[in-house]
Amino acid sequence: MTYLNLFWTFLMIGAVSFGGGYAMLPLFERMVVETHGWLSPSLFIDMIALAQVTPGPIAINSATFIGYQSAGVLGSVIATISVVLIPVILVGFVSARSESFKENKHVQAALTGLRPALVGLIFSSVVSVARSAYVDLFSPLLFVGLMALLWKAKLHPILVIVVAGVLGFIIYY
Amino acid sequence: MQPSLWHLFLSFLKIGAFTFGGGYAMIPVFEREFVHRYKYLKEEEFHDVLVMVQSLPGVIAINFSVFIGLRLRGKKGAFVSALGVALPSFVIILTIATFFFRFVDHPIVEAVFKGVRISVVALIFTAGYKMFKAHRHLKGLFLATFTFALVYTADIHPFFVILMMGLFGYMIEYTKEVNHHDVS
């Protein structure tokens, strides 16, 4: 049953996955954390961090991780294949008709309209992730410090995660 | 020029194994390898593929590899390319996951991740802000706020919110287009 749920969940996620990984986090969260309970809210955030510090596409990393956690190695194979299934079929379809698709006004109109919505999705994920990540008054302080490293010092995102880990160790251990 | 399937597989495997930061970070690497280094694609063809990849749902790196694989070596090419780009992530995450779940309750790991989680908030916030900056107009702000309210406050399933907003955005953009043509 878990296999079927994994297949269905990741098929749905893959089918509407626009704008790179982050806009899809609310969908991941709803299905993976709330509906099926495969990950706890905090493990869900840990997974995002792990997907970020390891090479490769974030959606593949997440599918592999969630699949493994819920149903072992076979689960991760199923989740990974399901998340790319519909997009790959679409690529095959579009590739054969690339000339007509490239400047298709309908597709471009839908995408232009969808883009601001993706911003809304990302911020809804910011709020829910922030709520689970909050521990104590050090949390907002840490946030401000890390934002400064990211925006002002232009530190690489992976290094920002590493710095956050070191600070977490110093503060909480 | 036509690459061998093996070479296609290895090229994508290398990109999958050494590119951090997800699909968008891979795009310049794809360009360097396939356009400039091996000259399998012309600059122009590459940009056509890029437009199409961004117009379709899915994992950017996978869609890209399937497009390029199909174009260079047909269905087999698509298969080995996608396999190549996904395999390193798959193996690395599986390895980490087996260890991670063994140590996740350890106090040191717990302390480290209390910090790490805050950095995730900062990263997602930054991604959202960058995307917002590209569409900083009133309509965009309205649509973004509306979407936020639907997902977060009204608690509607994000899957339907995405479909709905696509349709809604389409109606706004397309009527604008039609009016524009009427005027000119």
Give the total of domains of chain A.
2
| Dominant shape of chain A | globular
Largest sheet of chain B: none
Order of helices and strands of chain B: HHHHHHH
The percent range for strand residues of chain B is: under 5%
Query: What is the helix tally of chain A?
Result: 8
Number of strands of chain B: 0
Q: Determine the N-to-C terminus distance of chain B.
A: 45 Å
- Straight-line distance between termini of chain A: 40 Å
Stretches with pLDDT under 50, minimum 5 residues of chain A: none
Following the backbone from N to C, one meets helices and strands of chain A in this order, namely HHHHHHHH
The total of helices of chain B stands at: 7
Radius of gyration of chain A: 18 Å
Percent range for β-strand residues of chain A: under 5%
Give the beta-strand count of chain A: 0
**Mean pLDDT over all positions of chain A:** 91
Class by alpha and beta content of chain B: mainly alpha
Q: Average pLDDT value of chain B?
A: 88
**Integer count of domains of chain B:** 2
Point out poorly predicted stretches of chain B: none
